[in-house]
Design brief:
Blueprint: H1 2-14, H2 25-43, H3 48-69, H4 75-100, H5 104-109, H6 137-157, H7 162-180, H8 185-202, H9 204-223, H10 225-236, E1 243-247, E2 250-254, H11 256-272, H12 300-303, H13 310-340, H14 344-347, H15 353-369, H16 377-401
Antiparallel strand pairs: 1-2
Helix pairs in contact: 1-3, 2-3, 2-13, 3-16, 4-6, 4-7, 6-7, 6-8, 6-15, 6-16, 8-9, 8-15, 9-10, 11-13, 13-15, 13-16
Length: 406
């Protein structure tokens, strides 16, 4: 955040006239979210100056940092080494932590707070779950998946340089091992989703195969949800498969995989009654959140300590309007990135289709992953930063087509 603030201030002095460079749909959506954040929280008793500061810091700061970082010609190529180094350092630190159980950030820099409670034991009796500088392994995994686009950018920019491209390709396993070091199923599935989405964008046969497989999986889950969840538990090594809990005075089988379904089941009644304004930031900040109309769940504070669904959380926080705007922002960023692929070799050279394809694919996979993850600023900064990059590239493309790019 401090880095983003510093460079945004510098940008205002160096390239202030580009602040209002061609606006995009994503600019309008992020503005809508900020406005509705302010409206919702002030209507729920929030102090306007502090609400304005929170809305700017949470939504505008990371988005603007990404947007204005790429409006100049060659920005992607100049920024790539910095992000690659950051990704590799995080990945190596994660591998060390997973093998030894020692968090380098907590040991050498500053202790990581305990706002997110997690187990310090080995998972599957194999490895410790690495967090590096993040509060939770899943947050680290999502951030590393997002940062993978920069290794793709490095490989693409070294096209034609055999030694350099071999060095860049050698970094890929390091990043993959860093993601695996989180010992989290979500980020691993996120990698697979991103690869499938990227392949679907460029190969029609794979596209139809993926769509057909998704349709069959959807039918399977709809017909026999319990069997589908039991299969997922076995495949992922889920624990507590046979635990029985009480949900709205009915016995239900609970596991870590089914927990994501219980989140939807428990909070959907509250979302239906959230109205246009939702319940506000304070209401969803507790553990468990202090919101009305929630389905009664046994030991909710242990089973449902947080709303592990980013879209659902935004809906509870800012109501139907906030939910719609946030969903539109995620979908719009993916669509905008896909639309950039065709023209990217011209205005992004030496980067082009590989980078924009990776950007679209990673944002798609992250959006799916966020259906099962609490909306934490730890990784949301990087989500919004990369959405801002998409917006900045769209603006850059429009300036390039009219010959007005610096």
């Amino acid at each position: 955040s401090s880095t983003a603030i510093f460079f945004l201030i510098a940008f205002c002095f160096h390239s202030g006239r580009l602040i209002f460079s061609p606006l995009t749909t994503l600019d309008c959506l992020i503005t809508g979210i900020v406005v509705w954040h302010v409206v919702s929280d002030t209507c729920h008793g929030g102090y306007l100056p502090s609400v304005l500061a929170l809305a700017y810091a949470e939504w505008v700061l990371p988005y603007a940092a990404g947007r204005y970082a790429v409006v100049h010609r060659g920005a992607i190529q100049r920024m790539t080494p910095w992000f690659v180094v950051a990704a590799v350092v995080l990945a190596i630190a994660a591998c060390i932590e997973s093998a030894s159980g020692m968090n380098l950030w907590s040991s050498w820099l500053t202790p990581i707070d305990d706002l997110v409670v997690q187990s310090n034991a080995k998972r599957f009796d194999l490895l410790f779950r690495a967090t590096a500088s993040f509060r939770h392994p899943i947050f680290l995994g999502i951030a590393l998946v997002l940062l993978s686009v920069w290794i793709v950018a490095l490989i693409e920019s070294y096209s034609g340089f055999r030694k350099r491209i071999c060095l860049a390709v050698a970094l890929v396993p390091i990043l993959v091992f860093g993601i695996l070091a989180t010992v989290s199923r979500g980020p691993v599935l996120e990698i697979g989703l991103a690869i499938l989405f990227a392949a679907s964008l460029h190969f029609k046969l794979i596209r139809w195969f993926v769509l057909g497989s998704a349709a069959l999986a959807g039918i399977y889950v709809a017909v026999d949800m319990n069997h589908a969840m039991a299969t997922l538990d076995r495949l992922t090594g889920s624990v507590d498969v046979n635990r029985v809990i009480e949900v709205d005075q009915q016995a239900e089988v609970y596991s870590s995989s089914r927990g994501r379904l219980f989140v939807i089941q428990a909070f959907t009644p509250s979302l239906r009654r959230a109205g246009l304004l939702g319940y506000g930031t304070d209401a969803v900040s507790g553990s468990p959140p202090d919101i009305p109309h929630m389905l009664r769940v046994e030991n909710a504070e242990k089973i449902l300590p947080a709303v592990d669904n980013a879209f659902l959380l935004v809906g509870l926080r800012f109501g139907w309007v906030g939910f719609t705007l946030f969903a539109a922002l995620m979908i719009g960023s993916i669509v905008s990135a896909v639309l950039l692929i065709h023209g990217s070799p011209t205005f992004l050279s030496p980067n082009g289709r590989w980078f924009t394809t990776a950007l679209a694919s990673v944002l798609f996979a992250t959006a799916v992953e966020m259906l099962t993850v609490f909306l934490a600023y730890d990784f949301v900064f990087w989500v919004l930063f990369h959405i801002g990059i998409v917006s900045g590239l769209r603006s850059h493309y429009r300036m390039a087509t009219r010959g007005d790019v610096l």
